[in-house]
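Protein: Glycine/D-amino acid oxidase
Species: Marinilactibacillus piezotolerans
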Amino acid sequence: MQKKKIAIVGGGVVGASAAYLLSKEPTLEVTLYDEGVGQGTSAAAGIISPWLSKRRNKKWYRMVKEGAAFYPEFLSEVMNGVAIPKTVYNQVGTLLFKNNPEHLKDLLKIGLKRRESAPEIGELKILSPEEIKKKIPLYTGIESALWAAGGARVDGKYLVDLLIQKAITQGAHFKKEHVETLTVKGHHPILNTIHQNTQYDKVILAVAAWLPNLLEPLEYKVDIRPQKGQLLEIELKNTITTNWPVIMPEGETDIIPFENGRVIIGATHENDKGFDLEIDKVQLTHMLHDAVTGFSDHFKQASVVNYRSGTRAYTSDFAPFFGPVPELSNVYAASGLGSTGLTAGPLVGKVLAQLILDKPTSLPLEDYPIRNYIQSKK
Ligand SMILES: Cc1cc2nc3c(=O)[nH]c(=O)nc-3n(C[C@H](O)[C@H](O)[C@H](O)COP(=O)(O)OP(=O)(O)OC[C@H]3O[C@@H](n4cnc5c(N)ncnc54)[C@H](O)[C@@H]3O)c2cc1C
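Structure follows.
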């Protein structure tokens, strides 16, 4: 029997998850194209802890809640009996700080209510500075924080490398190439690169902020805009940070410890920079300075060892979307995952894979309507 040819454009967390899942299917031949430039996933040192957000959008909350719950299940499947590497994903818990202690109590109430339908939040309690110090010996602050044991951190780059490697092992083709254009012949989508034009049975566009580049030439109006995110990495010499929780101070800058004293600090949210990826060291030094108040001198004097920059994708109302592209047979897309795309990515990749396989989807498409963001001008 001839295999159905499936292509995925975009090898961030969404496309790589879909490629992994679809490459398990013996009836499909899967090809993943990824240029890799500006990728949000590889830049992200990601926090998976959506439950304590004050954002009230119920559909968004459902997506990130179920996305967070899906992670351990998905990665256990990917690892097939081998332990999930801590470099990729580690459920270390999160510590959320608020300047006003009353706000911590409010959040605890919200969290306890949400835990009724999200037991994966795990233990939830306000920790005193002394209790925080037991988890993070370099903490010298005097503030309490809300502890959520189920929170996790993910290194986006390691995650996509793992998923793409597994997809290739399962028979997927990986092309580190830019898809110049998408064209259509009858009901067949065609992907055109500088090397060749290839016709597929079905195509997934998981290209995040770059979606307009592929759809606008086909006369679509696409409501997607780029947001620049930068972060930096410090190294704490002779310090074991592997199981430190993620630290979320008030404001936008979070502290995300990884193993071997490696700690990531970020990220910026810059709406006026387009697809610019240049590192602004002055801005990042200010961010670092703000982040390390409340920690010992050892933390403050740590050396910066790396910088990262990437692009997030947003819609005008900050809502995500996914589904079949309207009026374009056999083409599916997802985008607009914004600053919680690493949390939702594997689940959204699964939904796209389910669409390719004509299976019921894990999230209801009507709650994330693609038609609101992609409209044919014809
Ligand atoms: C600094 C930073 C920190 C973040 N922190 C968090 C966090 O803590 N928690 C969280 O949940 N989320 C976080 N995010 C958001 C999250 O990383 C993104 O929402 C998510 O990774 C988007 O995944 P994606 O697969 O949709 O897109 P991307 O990861 O952006 O991947 C899209 C890929 O498509 C490729 N591509 C585009 N056009 C083409 C083409 N024509 N041909 C071939 N390839 C193409 C790109 O090169 C790219 O590799 C962060 C983002 C940034 C930038």
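Remarks: The longest helix spans residues 58-79.
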